[in-house]
Write a structure and sequence with these properties.
Oligomer: single chain
Strand order of the largest sheet: 1-2-5-4-3-6
Number of helices: 2
CATH topology: Elongation Factor Tu (Ef-tu), domain 3
Order of helices and strands: EEHEEEHE
CATH class: Mainly Beta
Number of domains: 1
CATH architecture: Beta Barrel
Structural class: alpha+beta
Helix content: 10-25%
Number of strands: 6
Distance between the termini: 7 Å
Largest sheet: 6 strands, antiparallel, barrel
Length: 95
């Protein structure tokens, strides 16, 4: 399954600070249907991700009825991203 969407980069300071992009609702429905086939626990979904020219692997987190894409520091630096930027994310889920 391949998905592409745009969303805002946001920061969660929590006990382990991290940057995320929230997956839009329509794409979350597709991911939720796939989750039982690929999740390795807590609803986490392993994906290959891409923003701009930067690829990485990560796992989507379920949050507030949707999924969020963790955006690593190396990705933010390579793509010169700041909190509040609207980014296009490409995800590939190996089903």
């Amino acid at each position: 399954m391949n998905l592409e969407f745009s969303g805002e980069l946001w920061f969660w300071k929590g006990p382990a600070p991290w940057h995320f992009v929230t997956v839009p609702e329509a794409e979350c429905d597709e991911l939720e249907a796939t989750s039982p086939l690929v999740s390795y626990g807590w609803g986490m979904i392993p994906v290959a991700a891409r923003i701009g020219d930067t690829d990485w692997t990560t796992s989507l987190f379920p949050k507030d009825g949707r999924y969020v894409v963790p955006v690593k520091t190396q990705v933010r630096k390579a793509e010169e991203l700041e909190v509040g930027d609207i980014v296009t994310v490409r995800l590939s889920v190996n089903v």
